[in-house]
Amino acid sequence: FVSFNPDIVGFSVLTGPIIKEAMEQSATFKRLNPAVKIVWGSAHPSVLPEQTIAEEIIDFLVVGAGEYTMLDLTEEFESGHPKLDRVKGLVWKREGQVVFNEPRPFIENLDELPDPAWHLIDVSKYWDKSLNTSRGCPGKCTFCYSPLFHKDYIGELSAARIVDQMETLYRSYDVRFIRFFEDTFTGNRERLRRFCQLMIERKMPVYWDCDSRIGLSDEDIALMSRAGCVSVGLGVETGSPRMLKFIKKGIGVETVVKTVSHLVKHHIMPRLYFIAELPTETIEDFQQTQALIRRLGRPPYQYMAYTPFPCTELYDYCVRNNFLKPP
User: Fold this and answer.
1) Of 81, 148, 173, 227, which residue is the least packed, with the fewest Cβ within 10 Å?
2) 0.85 exceeded by the pTM?
């Protein structure tokens, strides 16, 4: 940090333990260089801007999508005479008063963005080479920040652009496996099928992995397998029908079983995500989850502790029922 001497340091901050780490690192950077500008963005600052900007060591917040806001902020500083009130999507402090600039709309066409700047890093040092090709999720799960942060917005790279990026990683950096790191890579079925067709047509020797909502058809899974998919992560959350309804997951246990069986049939490894300690969960609910895991043949699965994302429906439920006190 000292040798690089940046003017701006940005943090992408979700609710949870990452806040503590971001606070500690922000304070360290300010101590090493009091002139550095600390910028926080992503879900937590966007949902709770007043609370977040109140921290003395944070200079700016980016509310919503960050690409153009960070570009505009950087260009204003480089001009030597920054007019910060012109930067859409920015929250900042002027003489101790919090200023909320005009909101910035989400990016309608992600294809207008440049490719990630892979040439600025040593790609070989990273064991997990990932791409982000979409934003937003059609689900309305009560525990998730996405409906609150993205609202009804869905943004996507085109199928052709995805394959182009994969080809660049393969030809320039010998990348043979890519993880699609986003809420649901398969949400747009038309895009999914076009992507798979392009992978098959180009005979791309790159395997891939993604996350998906439950409900993929046997035909789509067969096509994904032919296109190089080797693993799919599925947000099941719970094996309890009561809990699935309570969190508004929009799926049933039998649909989970059917989706997993289709994946196994086409030699794609299912990975299951569950949430531990959901509000109102009982021993019986937990046992139903365990029974579902056994019924599915104990594929790889992961429990993640429930994190109350502020302002979500389930968070508000917890506050109303005195399960937690807002910080």
Assistant:
1) 81
2) yes
Biggest CA-to-CA distance, the chain: 64
Contact yes or no for 248/271 (Cβ under 8 A): no
Residue linked to tokens 């990932």: 130
SS3 of 302-315: EEEECCCCCCCHHH
Q: Rounded to whole angstroms, how far apart are CA atoms 31 and 212?
A: 42
Please, are residues 13 and 19 in contact by the beta-carbon 8 Å criterion?
yes
Distant-in-sequence contacts of 100-106, Cβ < 8 A, 24+ apart: 100/49, 103/63, 103/64, 104/63, 104/64, 104/65, 104/68, 104/69, 105/64, 106/64, 106/65, 106/135, 106/150, 106/153, 106/155
**pLDDT, position 159:** 97
- Record the tokens describing residue 101, joined without a space: 């600039």
The pLDDT, as a whole number, for residue 213 is: 94
Place of tokens 């895991």: 293
